[in-house]
Amino acid sequence: MTSLDIRKKFIDYYTALGHAEVENASLIPANDTTTLFMGSGMQPLVPYLMGQKHPLGTRLVNVQRCLRAEDLDEIGDGRHHSFFEMLGCWSLGDYFKVEQIPWTFSFFVDELGIDPAKLYVTVFAGEDGLPRDMESAEIWRQVFAKRGIQALATEDVYKVGEGNYRIFYYPKKKNWWERNNGKAPVGDPAGPDTEIFYFTGEEHDPRFGEKCHVNCDCQRFVEIGNDVFMQYKKTGDSSYVELEQKNVDCGWGFERIVRVVQNKKDNFATDLFLPIINQIQAYSTIRYGEMSKTDWVYRLCADHLRAAVFLTGDGVLPSNKLQGYVLRRILRRVIFQSKKLHVTDNFLASVAGVVVDAYSPSYPHLLTAKPRVLTALVDEETKFTNTLDKGLKEMAKLAQKTNGKFGQPELLVLYETYGVPMELAKEICTEKGWNVV
Ligand SMILES: [Zn+2]
């Protein structure tokens, strides 16, 4: 099944269940200066989750393009992305747990053909006077039972793999949703969530803890779904009352779902990234997958160039501030890191062309924007390539002078004179063993 098929199946499935499709909006939030980028599909829907009437009704569905630029350093490991797509569906005071959980399950199992025996779920254990979400656990038990799978629930999360345990209770830290990481203002909606995981069959990685569990960071279990049940209103620091309008907010990571359905070892092996990686390979003498030392660079370039195409497609140009600065940082990071792949020619435009071709069936605006996107990328590539070598030489000289210590004044000179963004300069310092003070 291609990623295009999966995207379409999701929309068709929820449309058939009476959901209206919400526009896949620009990465740059309209009328919202509190955040640089669209970070989730629910972001533009907050007023409606708070009770305002949505013009399209009480059942909504969409695929939303999103961007998170906070942890760019983690990109390259196979599962983190700057740009990503989110599958979302919402009930605005309409249906609740008893409908949503079986729908979620049936979408994964019947529509996408995922083996139900490989699915595990988590629910809220109860904490701070908030009750355990027994209702969701019971619905999950019944859903599995209908497929002949006995699913037992436990709060001992390390029992995964033992007996018939398949439903695991986790505390607030893992299975509770409210905005701003639990620091939402009084009056905001909040509630328990339930997450669906796919068992990859791989071994636990002890770097992430002595024992494995479903929500372990080792990724032996991949999270494919997260359904939030907004059933409370925040009335104080940790006090809540039942909401009159109860909502469902489901947000599922598209790349991970594609990875599971296409049975790949990581997101970058799916059809969402392979054409991009192949095009980068055309400019390198080092193959992807052959030298694990440089594979992360391939992944970083593929991730960042996909993000850059979507950003310029939404009207952002490289600059010194706000979204433009993030785009500049992303592009300059690609240009610097691509040296490790022995890329010598300008390659951004040709790779960006592949991104446009792969994504324009779902994002037709990219076709119209293509000439503008390619020009912006080539301009930035030419500008930075011309100064990067000088910047690196200057860094080496500075390091000698300061005994390997880089403070704010040095970082500022590097940016203003040589165009090396501060975050990139810090990254180079780490690689060379110099200190940022
Ligand atoms: Zn693990």
Commentary on this structure:
With 437 residues, the protein is α/β, with parallel strands linked by helices. It folds into two domains: 3-261, BirA Bifunctional Protein, domain 2; 273-436. It has 13 helices and twelve strands. The protein has helices at residues 3-16, 46-49, 97-111, 134-145, 172-175, 254-261, 274-281, 292-313, 322-337, 348-359, 365-402, 408-418, 422-432; strands at 20-21, 59-67, 83-92, 119-124, 152-154, 165-170, 176-178, 189-199, 221-236, 239-253, 405-406, 435-436. The strands form two sheets. Strands 1, 2, 3, 4, 5, 6, 7, 8, 9 and 10 form a ten-stranded mixed β-sheet that branches. Strands 11-12 form a two-stranded parallel ribbon. It binds zinc ion. Zinc ion is lined by residues 204-205, 208, 212, 216, 218, 220.
State mean pLDDT (0 to 100 scale).
93
One letter per element, helices H and strands E, the order comes to HEHEEHEHEEHEEEEHHHHHHEHHE
- CATH class label of the largest domain: Alpha Beta
Which structural category fits the helices and strands? Answer: alpha/beta
Ligands: zinc ion
